[in-house]
Design brief:
The protein is α/β, with parallel strands linked by helices and 339 residues long. Helix content is 41%, strand content 15%. Helix 1 packs across helix 2, helix 5 packs parallel to helix 6 and helix 9 packs across helix 13.
């Protein structure tokens, strides 16, 4: 381990799904944690969410400061005195009115710029598995692959992750900042605090709520948010992780597999989960008028293989079974009456 043990760590985007699990993991390991939010009114809800995992007293130690990815103010103060930065903040794929590419890229410039000026020991940046997926579906995704941005509006979220990671590596090279990037595949798992209706687990909520008459012929490599949080912490504390891209992957599941897992495990709670698969032609037709359907079209019937062995070998990291992650996600949503 590096001398990160017990140091102050800045985690950006404290209201986020992943960030809250990262913060909880750091607090449990004895770190002092500072986190950024766009509005300080969110501070109590952030600490309450973290408290679900670590207890209210430990969560009260989390310092919450205001900083926006699209504004310079606050970033130098946010990194003052910290040893490490974990940059998870990024706009979600369906954030209304957001310029996803601009926000992600400007955020990287501000966060890494401030980290460089403060001479932090290492930055861990949350990229995405989409940044390592090759054009040829017969080839596996791995850390040597640098996906190309599409420039298509319906693929703006994907492009934002690809371009922001490239910017991060360019900035690290220019400034001498030590960087590691984590590339999660499709994150699922319980949320800390109220789950967002914009996040990745919205898919399972919609399946349970009967919001889909049929499932599209889509699939992803499913990985647990709790395991990805652990991977970020390992990337921060393990000397060998410096300068590395690290894919965090689990197992590939089609939507129809996820629906079957829910029906088999949850009984009556899964009575509204669809049993039919939507023909690709229907998805493509609906994509002409529905932006979410339009985002799906390039990935219809495509199975991507992910080689996540690097994180396993280099860091000793392993993901739990994807089927258990799906069940835990659904069980948590039901327990919160969030369906």
């Amino acid at each position: 381990m590096t001398d990160a043990q017990g140091s102050t760590v800045l985690v950006t985007g404290g209201t986020g799904y992943l960030a809250r699990w990262v913060i909880a993991g750091l607090v449990q390991r004895g770190h002092q944690v500072r986190t950024t939010v766009r509005r300080l009114e969110s501070a109590d809800s952030v600490r309450a969410a973290i408290g679900e995992r670590v207890g209210a007293d430990a969560a009260a130690s989390v310092e919450v400061v205001a900083a926006d990815l699209l504004a310079d103010d606050g970033w130098d103060a946010a990194v003052e005195g910290v040893g490490h930065v974990i940059h998870t903040a990024s706009p979600l794929g369906f954030t209304p009115g957001a310029d996803l590419v601009r926000t992600a890229r400007e955020g990287v410039r501000r966060v890494l710029g401030a980290a460089s000026r403060a001479q932090v020991e290492r930055v861990v940046f949350t990229s995405s598995g989409v940044a390592a997926v090759p054009d040829d579906p017969s080839e596996p995704a791995n850390e040597t692959v640098w996906a190309e941005p599409s420039g298509v509006a319906t693929r703006a979220y994907r492009d934002s992750k690809i371009l922001a990671e490239r910017d991060a590596w360019d900035l690290a090279a220019e400034t001498g900042l030590e960087l590691a990037t984590v590339l999660p595949t499709f994150m699922q798992g319980p949320s800390l605090g109220t789950p967002s209706r914009e996040g990745s687990i919205e898919i399972i909520r919609r399946l349970l709520a009967g919001g889909m008459p049929a499932v599209p012929n889509l699939g992803w490599d499913v990985v647990d948010v709790r395991d990805i949080a652990e991977l970020h912490i390992l990337a921060m504390t393990t000397p060998a992780a410096g300068g590395q891209r690290l894919l965090g992957s689990g197992s590939f599941l089609w939507w129809r597999d996820i629906a079957r897992i829910l029906r088999d495990a949850l009984g009556d709670d899964a009575r509204k989960v669809p049993t039919r698969t939507m023909p690709d032609a229907v998805v493509k037709l609906l994509g002409r008028v529905n932006p979410q359907m339009a985002m799906m079209r390039p990935d219809l019937s495509r199975k991507t293989t992910v080689d996540g062995s690097k994180a396993n070998t280099l860091l000793g990291w392993h993901a739990r079974p994807a089927e258990q992650t799906v069940i835990d996600t659904a069980t948590a949503l039901i327990a919160r009456n969030a369906i």
